[in-house]
């Protein structure tokens, strides 16, 4: 009996370290519109592909593209190309919180990076968009290097791991 209990405790501890931690904040209506600000049009489709990947993660949350919204309209996730605070980062996302909910998110791709859109090498627009959209949904970093939400430099990735999906499901 003691072995069974110890085994269950060990299993719970291992499982808890494999799932990317979710932040305390989420989108209240479980939907988040994506808009493009000063962002190259050639990079829009890879972002939309990343959006679609998260939308099939099996959670009650979804992103949607809203071409009718202004890039400065609140309550959206806006993509920009520009300078990031940390110049060695490929991209950065900033969530704006009100009453415990994400109300806006800005994702900035570093304009000094030599971006690709075909998945041939990093930094890859779709891979980075997949990671940053996870943050915009409220998902935190993981220490598992196989996850899209890993905190290190990502190789090209186009699919979410079970850990990534479970982190989103834990929020929504």
TrEMBL record:
Single GO MF descriptor: zinc ion binding
Gene Ontology cellular-component annotations: extracellular matrix
Keyword Iron-sulfur: no
GO biological process: proteolysis
Residues covered by the Peptidase M10 metallopeptidase domain: 44-172
Keywords: Hydrolase, Metal-binding, Protease, Zinc
Pfam families associated with the record: Peptidase_M10
Key word Transferase present: no
Name of this protein: Peptidase M10 metallopeptidase domain-containing protein
Native source organism of the sequence: Methanolapillus millepedarum
Native organism taxonomy: Archaea, Methanobacteriati, Methanobacteriota, Stenosarchaea group, Methanomicrobia
């Amino acid at each position: 009996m003691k072995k069974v209990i110890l085994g269950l405790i060990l299993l719970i501890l291992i499982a808890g370290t494999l799932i990317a931690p979710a932040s305390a904040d989420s989108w209240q209506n479980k939907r988040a519109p994506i808009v493009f600000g000063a962002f190259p049009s050639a990079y829009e489709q890879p972002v939309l592909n990343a959006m679609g990947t998260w939308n099939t993660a099996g959670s009650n949350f979804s992103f949607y593209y809203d071409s009718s919204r202004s890039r400065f309209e609140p309550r959206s996730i806006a993509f920009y190309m520009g300078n990031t605070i940390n110049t060695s980062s490929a991209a950065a996302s900033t969530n704006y919180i009100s009453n415990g909910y994400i109300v806006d998110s800005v994702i900035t791709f570093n304009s000094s990076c030599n971006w690709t859109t075909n998945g041939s090498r990093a930094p890859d627009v779709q891979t980075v968009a997949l990671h940053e959209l996870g943050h915009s949904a409220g998902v935190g970093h993981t220490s598992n290097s196989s996850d899209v939400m890993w905190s290190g430099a990502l190789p090209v990735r186009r699919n979410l791991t079970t850990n990534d999906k479970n982190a989103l499901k834990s929020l929504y």
